[in-house]
Specification:
alpha+beta; 6-stranded antiparallel beta sheet; binds iron/sulfur cluster; 492 residues; 7-stranded antiparallel beta sheet; 17 helices; Rossmann fold; 23 strands
């Protein structure tokens, strides 16, 4: 089985999570990837197809699937959406009861099939497939060391370092994987597949989500629980920080490669990335967002005629804000769902108009009204200004912006494509300066405490709610710079 033959894009960075991040006209943060695995089901490929489809929002650039019955690997990877990469014939050719699959978002310029996952390798003990979500912060240094000692890399993906570390070890696969995972620093969720084993592993802080489900006797793994719902599986539990689950003919073995550090699940999963029907760390995403809106209303009420949310991620919070204040919730903004990955982006002259191709204001809803506009974050500020202006052009008399996260001031090192700190508007401007920049009548951000309380809901309290909030507070859970002297915080 081979990869789809598609012209390769121009690679402009050294490593695939490097975050060249010019972003697009819509100025949003980008998720990096989603993973889905099956162990012990005769229709592993079909389950993975539906599972990956449910995770499509985590990556639209490429999709891939590797399946085995214990002998040879069957795999296919291609550029595009899951439904574009796989058709019925392709899927039916992928026989086996174990599989790992992947959907990928790539940074600008990195649209190469070469980096589509799962990555597939042959090594002395057989076949190895690797799928990951996240970013290995010290991958460039490990890669450099490996290259110095003779390793030849097939891709520009930092995921490949784990395969080289495993292949160079003289230990058996499980011990080699344990050693390899122990060398990695960053935020990652790994699925590793060999001819007779599968490993699911999470980084020491649980930065990127990975959860386990059951379907009959089969074990399933997914970045989000929404994929379990789609295939009729039940959710069992999250993979714990530093944990590696090993699956083989005897069943599942709970193991770990490192002692857990403080739990630090990415706060942006709750705020923006994950699907509302997913649960994470015991909290439903929709319910958490709704509570963010409620807390936001308690923290920064403003008298207005309608509340509206920027679709899709801010709808839940807007409903919460409306419920708490008694101000009616209305669909004041409509998203054009067909402006997708393949949409031809407008020229520089038309960029100001660009947002209208994705969002429309509903004139009958907002005309002559004081509008509260709920959004999840402000990155550069350009999109917020455009949306505020959309509402004004549609006749809104006032636009009050409420953001259901603290100011986004610091770049992410754990797999989210963010602009450099200098491009993040909140890193250099005050709330009042941002308000002026986005042309809003008022602007307020959710406090860090409010965010934590909204995410926790009724759950037990953890340190910081078990969240990474580094893009807000600069408190990175790991080292972020491995060049020269040890350095914590931003390395930009
Ligand atoms: S720095 Fe921000 S985006 Fe990155 S993992 Fe932490 S919370 Fe998520």
């Amino acid at each position: 089985m081979s990869d789809a033959i598609i012209p390769q894009g121009l690679w402009t960075g050294d490593y695939y999570n490097q975050g060249t991040g010019k972003n697009d006209i819509f100025d949003t943060l980008k998720e990096e990837c989603g993973v889905f695995g099956v162990f012990g089901h005769p229709e592993a490929a079909s389950l993975s197809y539906y599972g990956l489809h449910a995770l499509q929002h985590r990556g639209e650039e490429s999709a891939g699937l590797c399946v085995t019955n214990g002998d040879e690997f069957n795999y296919y990877r291609g550029m595009g959406l899951v439904k574009e990469v796989f058709d019925r014939d392709r899927l039916s050719s992928l026989h086996g009861e174990r599989s790992i699959g992947h959907v990928r978002y790539s940074t600008n310029g990195d649209t190469s099939l070469m980096n589509a996952q799962p990555l597939i390798f042959k090594y002395r003990d057989g076949d190895l497939a690797v799928a990951t979500n996240g970013n290995i912060v010290n991958a460039p240094q490990i890669r450099h060391q490996l290259e110095q000692s003779g390793s030849i890399f097939q891709t520009t993906s930092d995921t490949e370092v784990i395969a080289h570390l495993i292949a160079r070890s003289s230990k058996d696969f499980v011990e080699a994987a344990r050693d390899a995972l122990g060398q990695l620093v960053g935020g990652f969720a790994f699925l590793l597949l060999t001819n007779d084993k599968m490993i699911a592993a999470s980084d020491r802080h649980g930065l990127r989500p990975l959860t386990m489900g059951r379907l009959g006797d089969a074990y399933l793994f997914s970045s989000e629980t929404c994929a379990f719902e789609v295939v009729g599986a039940e959710t069992v539990r999250d993979i714990l920080p530093g944990e590696m689950l090993v699956l083989d003919r005897e069943g599942i073995h709970e193991d770990r490669y490192a002692e857990p550090q403080r739990k630090a699940l990415c706060a942006m999963e709750y705020i923006y990335f994950s699907r509302p029907d997913s649960d994470m760390n015991g909290s439903n995403i929709h319910a958490a967002r709704k509570r963010m809106g409620q807390v936001m209303a308690q923290e920064s009420f403003v008298d207005a005629d309608v509340v509206t949310g920027v679709p899709d991620s801010s709808i839940s919070a807007a409903i919460g804000y409306a419920e708490q204040t008694g101000i009616p919730y209305e669909l004041g903004l409509i998203k054009n769902k067909y402006t997708g990955r393949t949409f031809i982006q407008p020229s520089q002259e038309l960029r100001e108009q660009g947002v209208k191709m994705k969002l429309s204001a509903v004139r009958r809803v907002v005309e002559g009204k004081r509008v509260v506009m709920i959004d999840d974050s402000i990155v550069r500020g350009t999109t917020s200004r455009r949306i505020v202006n959309l509402l004004r052009e549609a006749g809104a008399t006032e636009v009050h912006v409420r953001i259901t996260s603290p100011p986004f001031k610091n770049p992410c090192f754990y797999g989210i494509d963010t602009p450099s700190r200098a491009e993040l508007i909140a890193s250099s401007k005050s709330v009042e300066e941002i308000r002026q920049e986005i042309n809003a009548d008022s602007l307020e951000f959710l406090s860090a405490e409010g965010l934590i309380s909204a995410v926790e809901g009724d759950n037990a309290k953890n340190y910081k709610g078990g969240l990474c909030m580094a893009c807000f507070d600069n408190d990175y859970p790991t080292r972020t710079n491995f060049e020269g002297e040890e350095k914590f915080g931003c390395s930009c």
